[in-house]
Write a structure and sequence with these properties.
216 residues, mainly alpha
Length: 216
C-alpha cells in the first residue's frame, strides 16, 4: 500500500518534479500509462482522470506543451481502446461465457455489459469518465456488443472529450492558488467523483434486489 501511494503521489502531486527528472520522456510515459489503462482489460487500477488533470496542471506551469500533450494522450486513448476492442473480439466471447476467469473480474464484465444494454454505443463515450468501466467497455464491445465502424467513431469522440475535459480542467485550474495549495486533495476528490456513477449504479441495483426479494 505504501508503494502504491508513493507511485500515486509521484504521478500527481509530484508530477512537476517527475517531468523535470525525465524531460521529454514524460510525454511517452504518460501516453504509455493511458494506453495501458485503456488497452489492457487486466489493468483498470492505473490512474486515469487524476493523471490527466495533474498533467494539465503541469502543462499550465510550462513544464509540458499542452497541445503536444493533448494530441499524444488522445492518440494513446484511441489506440488503447482499439487494441482492447480487438482483444475482446478475439477472446471476449469465451471469457463472457465462462463462470470464472484467472485474469478477468467477471463482475466488472457483467456491469459493463449492463452499461451497453442501457446506453448502447454511447457507452464507449460515457465509459471514458467512469474508472474500471473505461477499461472494460472496449473489451465488451469487441466481444460482440458493437460493430467496428460504430465503435471507432465513438472511440475517437470519447477520447477527445475525455482528454480535453480532464487535461483542460487541470490546465485552467492548475495555477489557481487554492488549487495549488490543496492539489493532492483535489486530485483525490476527482477520483472520488469519477467513481460516484458506479456507486450510484451499485446502490440502485442493491435497492432493486431488496424490492424483488420476498418478504419474510
Amino acid at each position: 500500500m505504501h508503494e502504491l501511494l508513493a507511485i500515486f503521489r509521484s504521478l500527481t502531486k509530484n508530477l512537476d518534479q517527475f517531468t523535470i527528472d525525465h524531460g521529454n520522456a514524460t510525454y511517452a510515459i504518460l501516453m504509455a500509462i493511458v494506453f495501458v489503462e485503456t488497452g489492457f482489460v487486466i489493468m483498470p487500477f492505473l490512474p486515469g482522470d487524476s493523471l490527466l488533470f495533474a498533467a494539465g496542471a503541469v502543462a499550465s506551469r510550462g513544464f509540458l506543451s499542452a497541445p503536444l500533450l493533448a494530441l499524444g494522450l488522445i492518440a494513446a486513448a484511441v489506440i488503447g481502446d482499439t487494441v482492447n476492442y480487438h482483444i475482446g473480439k478475439a477472446i471476449g466471447p469465451r471469457v463472457m461465457k465462462s463462470e470464472q476467469s484467472r485474469w478477468f473480474n467477471k463482475k466488472h464484465l457483467v456491469k459493463t455489459h449492463k452499461f451497453f444494454e442501457k446506453y448502447g454505443p454511447k457507452t464507449i463515450v460515457l465509459a471514458r469518465f467512469v474508472p474500471i468501466v473505461r477499461t472494460f467497455a472496449p473489451f465488451v464491445a469487441g466481444a460482440g456488443a458493437m460493430n467496428y465502424r460504430t465503435f471507432i467513431v465513438y472511440n475517437v469522440v470519447g477520447a477527445v472529450a475525455w482528454v480535453t475535459l480532464m487535461l483542460g480542467s487541470g490546465y485552467l485550474l492548475g495555477q489557481i492558488p487554492f488549487v495549488k495549495e490543496r492539489f493532492e486533495l483535489i486530485v483525490i476528490g476527482i477520483v472520488v467523483l469519477s467513481v460516484m456513477p458506479m456507486v450510484v449504479e451499485w446502490w440502485r441495483a442493491r435497492g432493486a434486489k431488496t424490492e424483488e426479494s420476498p418478504s419474510a
